[in-house]
Design a protein that fits this description.
The complex is a heterodimer of chains A (about 290) and B (about 280). With about 290 residues, chain A is an alpha/beta fold. Chain A contains 10 helices and 11 strands. Chain A has a 6-stranded parallel beta sheet. A 3-stranded parallel beta sheet of chain A has the order 3-2-4, sandwiched between helices. The chains are: A alpha/beta (about 290), B alpha/beta (about 280). At the A-B interface, helix 5, helix 7 and strand 6 of A face helix 5, helix 7 and strand 6 of B. Strand 6 of chain A pairs antiparallel with strand 6 of chain B, so a sheet runs across the interface.
Chain lengths: ~290, ~280
């Protein structure tokens, strides 16, 4: 038996179409959700990411604007802009494209974003809200996208053994907290884990976000497991690969995400969802309870 | 009994003696750390907890004051008190004793406390800083557990830790602290299908559920370090933890008693957080 390959592009299209109707409702009330993207310097990768985000905004009918700063920009100048955007009623979401040049303190810039407009979910206040499990926060986009994929495929989470490989602040830790809130038993493995296979073999749902190509091979995966590969690695031959040995694991898992085309398209989509949710909250509508894939 | 007892009261005494020195330096600079406790309603357990905290303050030279509020007070009254204390320069730490009467929303009240005075570590900003790996003020019970492990010289990095219980006050923050120290962490709870499968993997097993006898010796890996956060009043009137101590202490290498284990450490960490907050207020720490 071969796993069902989860088509992240198709799920992302579906989610965007659902959220487009919410955008239409907002527009009928005279509100166009708006996203402001701050980009500092001219990293080609950052430019591509920002372009993708702006393009996704356009597709769903969001207003977006890009605020460019030179690589040597001083911090107060950027913070002043963030504060202006915090006050700007046309802007509901603000994101600072990472990584930043070394003279800038990432934590300070992210901390300057209003928590009501923190659509990347990186503000410490929103991160902390994940511990409490309140639903008026912005979940960080990548783990939110993974959760959305699981929900779209109707994969049960409650009572399942989930293993998250990778303990980053952006993916692993928030992912673990979000799935605990959904009643999964969650183990978090990372570079200090001594016997990774001892854990991965337990997993009904295995989420890998380590940035290490080929880390997960078929013998480490429980038969019938759901395998979500968040890794995206550029191999020496120029191709992209995840952290999972896709060819080997595909025959053992029940579901698997490809790289590229799995989690990746969901991350940008969830940014759009968070921005629309921010706009809805701004007009006083309480839409938090609706799952993104509904 | 095979296991060494982790004596929370004794470890707490050592914590206090370290704190006395820090308090002495602050007072030499004209600053006395101050803690304000809001006691809302007349829950007898809450009264005892607040009394213990006030007592601990006076033992080490921390100023404390209790703000009693009626059980039927409004949220606005509570928020007004919190705001006044946020602005009071003699107060470095504010705690709201939980649980709250039903008309008050805990998150609303807790989030009103200034992050710099949030000595219980429940403000989302403080929880977020802890997750991001640069904690300012962190929740007291998990801090107390970590301090006990360190005091007992328990290796954490690379070890398998299992936390049973996923509360926002203990289980989840503790899991984040253990990860930050390099443990592989599993978090189990009431929806876990096979608890034993996990507990038997644990080099470090922490139980914070509130169910006496949930874990017995047969569920413990030989030589494990067992930390029992549970505190349950038995029908006999005695206190018991979540671990069956008689069988657990035969299998574990180290184990906490209840009472006298984690409990005293929680209060000690509250005082430590208050001192830290006072040091920060004068630009130290």
């Amino acid at each position: 038996m071969s796993a069902k390959v989860i088509d992240g592009n198709a799920v992302a299209r579906h989610v965007r179409s659902v959220w487009k109707t919410r955008v239409d409702v907002l527009k009928a009330r005279g509100v166009t959700p708006g996203l402001a993207v701050i980009i500092v310097g001219d990293s080609p990768a950052s430019r591509i990411y920002v372009r993708n985000k702006v393009k996704a905004c356009g597709e769903v009918g969001l207003h977006s604007e890009t605020h460019e700063f030179p690589a040597n920009a001083a911090e107060p100048m950027i913070i002043t802009r963030i504060e202006e955007l915090n006050r700007n009623p046309k802007i509901h979401g603000i994101l600072v494209q990472l990584p930043l040049p070394p003279q800038l303190e990432t934590r300070r810039l992210l901390g300057a974003i209003s928590i009501e407009k923190d659509v990347d979910g990186f503000h410490l206040y929103n991160v902390g809200g994940l511990v409490v499990g309140e639903n008026n926060i912005f979940p960080p986009c990548t783990p939110y996208g993974v959760q959305c994929l699981l929900e779209y495929e109707k994969i049960p989470i409650e009572g399942q053994n989930v293993v998250v490989v990778g303990a980053s602040n952006i993916v692993g830790k928030p992912m673990a907290l979000m799935l605990m809130a959904k009643d999964a038993t969650v183990s978090i493995c990372h570079i200090k884990t001594r016997d990774l296979a001892q854990y991965t073999i337990l997993a009904d749902i295995l989420i890998v976000a380590a940035g290490c190509p080929g880390l997960i091979t078929a013998p480490m995966v429980k038969r019938g497991a759901v395998v979500i590969d968040v890794g995206i690695n550029r191999l020496p031959n120029g191709t992209l690969a995840g952290d999972v040995d896709f060819a080997g694991v595909k025959d053992k898992a029940s579901y698997i995400t490809p790289v590229p085309g799995g989690v990746g398209p969901m991350t940008v989509t969830m940014l759009i969802c968070n921005t629309v949710a921010a706009a809805e909250r701004a007009v006083g509508r309480n839409a938090e309870k609706t799952p993104a894939s509904a | 009994m095979a296991a060494t007892l982790l004596d929370g009261a004794a470890i707490a005494r050592q914590v206090y003696s370290g704190l006395r020195q820090r308090i002495g330096s602050l007072r030499a600079g004209g600053v006395r750390p101050g803690l304000a406790a809001l006691l809302i309603g007349d829950n007898p357990a809450s009264r005892i907890y607040v009394r213990n905290k006030v007592h601990a303050c006076s033992e080490v030279g921390v100023y404390s004051e209790v703000h009693p509020l009626a059980a039927d007070c409004t949220e606005e009254e509570v928020l007004a008190t919190v705001r006044r204390l946020n602005a009071d320069s003699a107060i470095h730490g504010i705690l709201v004793q939980l649980p709250l009467p039903a008309q008050l929303r805990p998150e609303r009240v807790l989030q009103a406390i200034a992050p710099a005075k949030d000595v219980d570590g429940f403000n989302w900003l403080n929880l977020g800083a802890m997750i991001a790996g640069h904690p300012l003020l962190a929740p007291c019970t998990p801090l107390g557990v970590m301090a006990m492990l360190d005091h007992a010289g328990v290796a954490i990095e690379g070890r398998s830790a299992v936390v049973v219980g996923r509360s926002a006050i203990v289980g989840k923050p503790l899991a984040m602290m253990l990860i930050a120290r390099g443990a592989t962490v599993s978090v189990c709870h009431s929806k876990t299908v096979d608890l034993r499968q996990y507990t038997l993997m644990a080099d470090i097993l922490v139980i914070a559920v509130g169910r006496p006898g949930l874990v017995d010796g047969s569920m413990i890996k030989p030589g494990a370090v067992v930390i029992d956060v549970g505190i349950n009043r038995m029908s006999s009137g005695k206190l018991a933890g979540d671990v069956d101590f008689a069988s657990g202490s035969l299998i574990a290498s180290k184990i906490t008693p209840v009472p006298g284990g984690v409990g005293p450490m929680t209060v000690a960490m509250l005082i430590a957080n208050t001192v830290t907050a006072a040091e920060r207020s004068v630009g130290g720490g």
